[in-house]
Write a structure and sequence with these properties.
Layout (H helix, E strand, L loop, with lengths): L1 H5 L29 H4 L7 H5 L8 E18 L5 E14 H5 L4 E12 L2 H5 L15 E14 L4 E8 L1 H4 L44 E11 L2 E9 L20 E13 L4 E18 L2 E20 L8 E12 L6 E12 L9 E11 L8 E14 L2 E11 L8 E13 L1
Antiparallel strand pairs: 1-2, 1-16, 2-3, 3-4, 4-5, 5-6, 6-7, 7-8, 8-9, 9-10, 10-11, 11-12, 12-13, 13-14, 14-15, 15-16
Length: 428
């Protein structure tokens, strides 16, 4: 059950999630994120590097992830019967500068991203987005996804990361766990849901950089005690004015900024010490934001999330553990131009429910967004999603996904939609 419990540690992001592997340790994999590019700072498991001799003791890490899915809009939406596919490839490497050149607490990292796909969310008329691999246009990208320097200070209680990165990894990230007791979990998640609200709070969408529009900026993390953290970040804010920050390799500071801060912590409930965690944050976007004839001078918002172990079963030393974890999200903003003004979401994941398949998971999720009346004629969109994620072998996972979209928000003329997806994830 130790692996299941580790999935519920602080979601303070990668700034203090960099645990050191030893030659005796083997990266453990439990549930894999429906979109690892959105919630994990390290690409894949690092086994690609080990194949060419880059073992953890060398200070070098090379890994990657490949995702591909097929989607069928069975009925409803904008284009019922339509199909589409998505393909994502990420290759990344890190260098521990302490091990390589003797610079304590320093690390550099970089990732390359290749994406190609279809407007499957547009086919369904979904503003929330039932498939997180499809983000904003263009729908074909080759880009420098990340390039950063991370410096740990004060016994890792303060870390600073400077460069091009993905803020949704550090902020609003309800799904990302943190390793405990020096156990490496390179690509775990609290859920395998694939819909977009699981990875970016809809009330920040259009302003907050993330997958796949990463941005240049600075991220600070403070962890005075193990059970509490504070994160703060400031980034290039030109995404809100329509500039695609992800597919531009160099900084593009035009006087607008996206600033965000988050604090959170963990707890244990009852005799079984059921782990839970929660976070709360606020953000501000500067600059003139426009939508048609409407203009506003910046905007701001608040969000929160929580996760709790609901049930766990111990005594399965040969398995990853059995249990159920639930999570909750919310967000609001004061924007006149962004797509959503409010959001609530929740979900649950069952781990190891089939004794002979300890690394399979079953999950459900619900997302409800209040649409900005300046942008849409409908005032809301509701999405329900369920999946079964199966580990075929080692680092290969497959998952069928069923999504129901009630009142697709793009147009009041679109009827309720049903979509089927089949995703394959390969980690290396």
């Amino acid at each position: 059950m130790r692996h299941l419990l580790a999935l519920l540690m602080l979601a303070a992001g990668p700034t203090f999630a960099q645990t050191e592997d030893t030659p005796e340790q083997t990266p453990a994999i439990n549930v894999v994120s429906g979109n690892p590019a959105a919630v994990n700072i390290d690409a894949g498991t690092g086994q690609l590097g080990e194949l060419i001799g880059l073992t953890p003791d060398t200070g070098f890490r090379l890994g990657g992830v490949l995702l591909a899915d097929f989607n069928w809009l069975v009925t409803g939406g904008k284009e019922p019967g339509k199909t589409g596919w998505n393909f994502l490839f990420i290759l990344g490497g890190n260098v521990d500068l302490d091990k390589t050149i003797g610079l304590p607490g320093a690390e550099v990292g970089s990732q390359f991203l290749l994406y190609k796909g279809y407007d499957v969310n547009g086919q369904a008329g979904s503003v929330l987005g039932y498939n997180s691999l499809e983000a904003s246009p263009p729908l074909g990208r080759t880009e420098l996804y990340q390039l950063w320097w991370r410096q740990a200070l004060l016994d890792d209680r303060l870390t600073i990361r400077v460069g091009k990165s993905v803020p949704t990894i550090d902020f609003t990230n309800v799904l990302a766990p943190i390793p405990v007791e020096n156990e490496p979990f390179p690509v775990p998640s609290l859920s395998g849901l694939i819909y977009t609200p699981a990875f970016v709070n809809p009330t920040t969408e259009g302003a907050m950089p993330g997958y796949y529009d990463s941005a240049w900026g600075v991220t600070l993390n403070i962890t005075p005690i193990e059970q509490f953290y504070v994160n703060w970040g400031i980034y290039d804010g030109s995404l809100a004015s329509g500039f695609t920050t992800g597919d531009h390799a160099f900084p593009h500071f035009n006087g607008t900024y996206f600033m965000i801060a988050e604090m959170g912590g963990t707890w244990k409930l009852g005799e079984d010490e059921l782990l839970g965690r929660a976070g709360f944050g606020g953000w501000q976007q500067t600059g003139n934001l426009t939508n048609g004839t409407i203009t506003e001078d910046g905007t701001y918002g608040f969000y929160g999330f929580a996760a709790q172990t609901i049930w766990q079963e111990t005594g399965h030393a040969d398995e990853s553990g059995q249990g159920i974890i639930g999570f909750f999200q919310w967000g609001i903003n004061d924007s006149e131009t962004m797509p959503f003004n409010g959001f609530m979401g929740a979900g649950a994941t069952a781990f190891g429910v089939i004794p002979s398949r300890p690394n399979d998971t079953i999950g459900v999720g619900a997302a409800y967004g209040w649409l900005n009346p300046n942008n849409f004629q409908r005032d809301h969109e509701l999405m329900l999603q369920t999946y079964y994620q199966a580990q075929v072998f080692d680092n290969l996972f497959v998952q069928p996904v069923v999504t129901y979209i009630k009142d697709p928000g793009a147009s009041p003329s679109y009827s309720d939609a049903w979509a089927l997806s089949f995703r394959v994830t390969v980690l290396f």
